Amino acid sequence: MITQKDVEHVALLARLELNEEEKRVYTKQLANILEHASVLNELDTADVPPLAHVLPLQNVFREDKAGGHLEAETVLEHAPSREDRHFRVPRLV
Amino acid sequence: MALFYRPAHELGRLLRERKISAVELAETVFKRIDAVDERVRAYLLLQREEALSRARAVDGALAAGEVLPPLAGIPVALKDNLCTRGVETTCASRILKGFVPPYDATVVESLEKQGAVFTGKTNMDEFAMGSSTENSGYFPTANPWDLERVPGGSSGGSAAAVAAGEAVLALGSDTGGSIRQPAAFCGVVGLKPTYGLVSRYGLVAFASSLDQIGPFSRDVRDCALLLNAVAGHDPKDSTSVPREVPDYTESLVTDIKGFRVGVPREYTGEGIAPEVRDVFNGVIEVLTRLGATVEETSLPHTKYALPTYYLIAPAEASSNLARYDGVEYGLRVPAEDVVAMYKKTRSQGFGAEVKRRIMLGTYALSAGYYDAYYLKALKVRALIKRDFDAAFERFDVLLSPTTPTPAFKIGEKVADPLSMYLSDICTLAVNLAGLPGLSIPGGFAGSLPVGVQLIGPPFGEERLLRAAYAFEQETGFTAKRPGL
Q1: C-alpha distances in angstroms, B256 versus A59, B228, B326?
Q2: Regions in chain B scoring below 70 on pLDDT
């Protein structure tokens, strides 16, 4: 059973800040959804290979040649904060 | 019928015969938008000036005697999760407010080459998560057939725009039913193509192994025309399939004698509203009259599709949405340290449904729960796909209602996520198996349209279009328009 403590831990992993009301609501709603999901345990899937993708996809290779790319300036235009040719973020350490 | 309500293939003919001009057509559609969008609210953003300038270019080319592609001059709306160079793309999320992509999605590029005229970006559930367009970070969209009801979701803006005459065609995206369900609610044609048929490059990712871009149209011929324009291999998308693409309009024949139609009993049982069942039975009668054989069949793992979907889709979403951290683009809420900045930015930028799915997905992928939830779901996904594989050994297409009920009222299901998720119950297994699914108007429940869904084997779009076309020609439901 999912507890409020689990929700707080998952919120940290997901980098979400939840208020008390959100914690309470999500604990209840996630518990409901996960309970609904427990129906999957009715099935014996020991011999079933997981299907991550429906297509028989293989890695796609291309020639190791420089291609079209966005200019640094174009990309940096969208930065909420920048300094020279860098994204600026708060202090990390 | 008013110009703005006509299908693209008719308008294309009028353009080529010079009976109307592309500018006149664009102006008519924008006049319609001015008249009704205050009530429908299908659009987040309009591209009026750009549209008129494109239309002028089309008129110039026509005057010069050039032979133009079928969609030249046709007003097309784009769901706001398709990147458009130089035009704000927000996914209806506050976290992307003001984001102007420096590139076009491949489908946008393809339509541009066809000479299509883009009307604007349509409203949606935030990051395509929802079944009603009430989860938009900006405002809900209304259903053109009944303004108190939802248009469906998450491509509700695109469906409503086409239904209301505010665009002739539109593109949406479908992760668990997000094209077919709003198409059904809004009485238009909506196709989720086979996974890999249409490039996802430039589509803002929700659940990458399920997402697929597809057309909304007024009738089946238009659906084929729009699919022609966007289908095909794209080296920029590693999941795009290198495969010859047919001319889908060649499938539009009315003969479906001997067509084998399977009706999975799991899609017509409990939970299907009586008025939807009546319409559905009517569809079976028509198909039988046209010479198809309709037989009941079974997809035994259907009841596991919803929980499987609601583990896999949020898991992929939690991973895809990790990129919204306030560093490179979009919203940033400043804070003392970088983790606090991530948390504040994401908490203020994402809406409730998006946060709920990120939480669910993160939980399903986290240490100690991965095997029990995510891996288990992937294994059940394999069983769901096997059901379909077996069915397509016996049938050309499968037939089901698109949704269990007609469009529900705005606000009716907002507080209960599980009940909202149930409105996609007939569509989401199709995404888990990567199959094509087509919703067409199958009839009406009072004044509300009811959709039926045709499901095909991988790359079986041609047979879906053929069956849909035969049904359409026999019934004429796609010619009905809301009295807006």
Answers
A1: 40, 22, 54
A2: none
